[in-house]
Amino acid sequence: MQKSRPDTDFTPGPYPQVTRQRVNALEILDAAYVANRIPIEWILDHAKRLTENFETLFALNYRTAGNYSDGDGNEIAGSKFDAVSGLVKSRLTFGDDGAQALTMSYTRWDSDLDDTEYSQTGTSGFGTVDREIIDDTLAIRYENPVLGNDLIDLDVVLSYASTQVEQSDSSTPYGPCVSASLFCDSEYGYETTSLKGENTATLGGATYDAYITKGVQLSHLERVATTVAGDLGYHPEGTDDKIGVYAQGEFIFNDRLTITPGMRADFIALEASSDLGSTDADEVAVSPKLAAHYEINDTYAVFGSLAHTERAPTIDEIFSYDDSDGEMYSLDLTTETANSAEFGVSASYRDLFGGANAMDVKATFFYSEIDDLIALDSTAGTPYYENIDSSKIYGLEFEVAFEADRMFMRAAYSDVRGEDLSTGETLTSIPVRNLNLTVGGRDHTRGIEYGWNDGFFDEISYGAGDDYASYAVHDLFFDWSPQQGALQGIKAGLRVNNVLDTQYENSLAGDPGEGRSCEISLARTFEF
């Protein structure tokens, strides 16, 4: 029997995750028609099991679009795109009962744009440039849940990722390459090699089950950033070597109470390019956590967690410097630390009002105190990055979903607050309070689903005149999936985004949002 593996992606951040995004990527062909914009997308997927123990997947995706327009009809420069991506993934199972597996995957993403805006958000005034971006990722994974030995369940992943950016032929009002190295022909490169190995031991008794996971992760990142005029101070070259060790337990008592303790330690060595002449930096970050989940009965449950997390400065944050005089900045940055608590309740109801339906409700409260928060400082004449002595982030998330045979409803409310305790101003990384509602209906016989989605976003101010107004965006959607006949396997969809053509700007986006747009999609699923 294949052994189960708990979720052990133990990479704690500075505070609990406070935003969630769901993406549906089943579209095979997507043509959207927008004022001043005709996006086109096509995706081809092909999967085949060549033998009983070997299967492979091929995928090809192409997307292109011009600049979109906001609710006032203004074209947003820098929003066009043109990209090709592909995936090849194969999996071989072998050994007793096919328990062992070897998986290899390769992905590539290629975007090549001429005369695109130099800055992709907040684009006004920087000019244009020819830019090509290529991302390559290769991964090899070996899994071996040793049958008959509950103490060994190996999972080893070796990966290599490369990002290469080439920019040339800039056209800018700030002058030629000689006067501003930012606009010189340049090459940026990131190469990361990583090895992760972990083992999960399974234990159990009459009243409990336990999963103990231990692992180690090694990574080496090397990056370059050169122009015909020399190095770039705002994108320093260097290497980042990390050794991470972690352990996590998952203890389940009487199928009701789950306790999950864990700890991770990262040993980090940063080394700047010899051309920068900067001091190297060594950091250690230790992050313990404790989480619990208790099912009161089949309907109600409570959960919570306590965590201390540490985040060491990155190459950018430590080694960035001012091009004007070459002075090294931010070398005195200290490790960011956070103490966080989370508490929540959930409820799952079935067959309400005597019908075949279900409703899930969840509320989560969180609070974090953060010392030495690392933040970007855009003030002229100051270091690029600074430590904020003390700050706090706290808030509430509430979710409810109702599903019935012929209708559905979903609602999600997020209220996140963040404050620099020394100034009283809102942290610039905090999203606005928002409420998202979806109400829809369906007809299973005809394969029809339709509905309305609405997002309400509150106003927010980050201080110093950095204010954003409240707004609401309404969307309509209609999907048709024939259940029989010659059209079975086809999915057609129509979506109208921002129906009222509202002019708005999300505080974290950098540009005004897209105005009214229509998307027509057509998908075809093949089975063989």
What proportion of the residues is helical, as a percent range?
under 10%
Structural class: mainly beta
Kindly estimate the percentage of residues that lie in beta strands according to DSSP.
Answer: over 45%
- Helices and strands, in order, run as EEEEEEEEEEEEEEHEEEEEEEEEEE
How many runs of DSSP E, i.e. beta strands?
Answer: 25
Gyration radius, in Å: 26 Å
Q: Main β-sheet: number of strands, strand sense, barrel status?
A: 22 strands, antiparallel, barrel
Number of helices: 1
Mean pLDDT: 82
Ranges where pLDDT stays below 50 over 5 or more residues in a row are 1-5, 8-38
The best one-word shape is globular
Span between termini: 28 Å
Task: Describe this protein's structure.
With 528 residues, the protein is mainly beta. It contains 1 helix and 25 strands. It has one helix spanning 315-319; strands at 29-34, 40-51, 54-65, 81-94, 100-117, 128-145, 153-171, 186-204, 208-227, 230-231, 238-253, 257-272, 281-295, 300-311, 336-350, 357-376, 385-404, 407-420, 434-443, 448-457, 460-461, 467-468, 471-480, 490-497, 517-524. The strands form 2 sheets. The protein has a 22-stranded antiparallel barrel. Strands 21-22 form a two-stranded antiparallel sheet. A hairpin with a 2-residue loop joins strand 9 and strand 10. The chain starts with 28 loop residues before the first strand and ends with a strand.
